[in-house]
Specification:
Layout lengths: L2 E9 L6 H10 L3 E10 L16 H9 L6 E4 L5 H11 L8 E4 L4 E2 L2 E2 L5 H11 L4 E2 L3 H8 L3 H6 L6 H9 L2 H5 L4 E8 L2 E8 L2 E8 L8 H14 L4 H18 L20
Parallel strand pairs: 1-2, 1-3, 3-4, 4-7
Antiparallel strand pairs: 5-6, 8-9, 9-10
Helix pairs in contact: 1-9, 2-3, 3-4, 9-10
Length: 273
């Protein structure tokens, strides 16, 4: 059994973040070592959410690592630059030197940073991802990490040129960002969602029809499946396709129309293999 150290927030509502990580990793036989980076009453898409004072994520993790080693580290949402920096320091520590490192660099969407972050956070994230074996930024986050013009890329995109544009624009992404591999998610064109899988020797673009709207937690669910499958020995393109298919299945099975509450992926959990 492999041990995975998980950095992410806990949200009381939204079926996202740690609520998505833990069941997926457990499903794949991983021993979970969760470290909360923040505790929210509900995910931040709800009005009136509140957050507990910052937890000492780095200190929490060191306590856990003193008792059990980590074969892998998963990094999701961090509440602020100080927390992200502490996580980054831990990724450079001898305690995680040999661990597989997967980073979901949550920072923004639709071409903009989330309001809780600033350019200092982006700069720190650029430092963090250089230690990663694989990262899973959405298109906005990928552009922020590699200093690519988001609007120019989106405006130039058609369904006929998606693969060519991704290969051209992101062909040098791994060298610029410093990670070993990446999947750029949420590249949308004419009702199809594409994911660009970047590996040292090739770029693969995989697409599936869009299912419903943008529900809370789908990115967490997607990244969790990709990371878990990689740790089980699945290739990155196959892991990405499996994750995309499962998220689509979960969205189709969700009965609640309020996207803030997230998907009801438990309805189709048995379809995850």
């Amino acid at each position: 059994m492999k041990n995975i150290l998980i950095f992410n927030d806990i949200s009381g509502l939204g079926n996202c973040s740690m609520s998505a990580n833990l069941p997926v990793f457990t499903k794949y036989g991983l021993y979970c070592m969760p470290v909360p980076t923040a505790v929210y009453s509900m995910q931040t898409g709800f009005d009136g959410f509140c957050v507990l004072p910052n937890v000492e994520a780095g200190a929490f993790a060191k306590k856990a690592l003193a008792l059990r080693s980590a074969d892998a580290v998963y990094v999701g949402f961090c509440n602020d630059t100080a927390t992200l920096s502490a996580v980054g320091d831990l990724l450079a520590d001898n305690a995680t030197k040999t661990a597989y490192k997967f980073v979901d660099p949550i920072m923004g969407d639709n071409g903009k940073l989330y309001p809780v972050f600033d350019e200092r956070y982006v700069a720190e994230m650029k430092r963090i991802v250089r230690r990663a074996d694989c990262i899973s930024p959405n298109l906005t986050e990928a552009c922020l990490l590699a200093d690519i013009d988001y609007a120019e890329f989106v405006d130039s995109l058609t369904c006929d040129n998606v693969t060519a544009r991704c290969t051209d624009v992101f062909g040098d992404f791994l060298r610029k960002v410093g990670c070993r591999s990446a999947v750029i998610t949420g590249i949308e064109c004419d009702g199809v969602i594409y994911n660009a899988v970047l590996q040292p020797c090739n770029t693969t673009v995989l697409g599936l029809p869009k299912v419903r709207g943008n529900y809370s937690g789908t990115g967490d669910l997607f990244s969790s499946v990709v990371a878990a499958k990689l740790l089980c020995g699945t290739s990155l393109p196959l892991a990405v396709m499996a994750a995309a298919e499962f998220v689509g299945t979960a969205l189709a099975a969700t009965k609640c129309d309020d996207r803030r509450f997230g998907t009801e992926f438990c309805r189709v959990f048995d379809e995850l293999d």
